[in-house]
């Protein structure tokens, strides 16, 4: 639980959920917000997912090293 990669992975996953919720909320609401921000939010979500996957892989790698 105290592993820094685990904590970073959880934070990154929460960030993905937040950006996804903002994107879905904007899509559902439509209008000007969706037109201005839908592609930007999608890029942020993909970036956050990439970072989350990196932290998850690092956590699993270092955990399997016996550390």
Automatic annotation (TrEMBL):
<keyword id="KW-0812">Transmembrane</keyword>
<feature type="domain" description="HIG1">
    <location>
        <begin position="1"/>
        <end position="67"/>
    </location>
</feature>
<feature type="transmembrane region" description="Helical">
    <location>
        <begin position="42"/>
        <end position="62"/>
    </location>
</feature>
<dbReference type="Pfam" id="PF04588">
    <property type="entry name" value="HIG_1_N"/>
</dbReference>
<feature type="transmembrane region" description="Helical">
    <location>
        <begin position="6"/>
        <end position="30"/>
    </location>
</feature>
<protein>
    <recommendedName>
        <fullName>HIG1 domain-containing protein</fullName>
    </recommendedName>
</protein>
<dbReference type="InterPro" id="IPR007667">
    <property type="entry name" value="Hypoxia_induced_domain"/>
</dbReference>
<keyword id="KW-1133">Transmembrane helix</keyword>
<keyword id="KW-0472">Membrane</keyword>
């Amino acid at each position: 639980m105290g592993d820094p990669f685990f904590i970073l992975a959880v934070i990154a996953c929460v960030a993905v959920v937040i950006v996804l919720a903002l994107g879905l909320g904007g899509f559902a609401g439509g209008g000007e917000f969706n037109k201005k921000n839908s592609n930007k939010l999608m890029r942020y979500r993909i970036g956050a997912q990439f970072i989350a996957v990196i932290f998850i892989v690092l956590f699993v790698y270092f955990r399997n090293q016996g550390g």
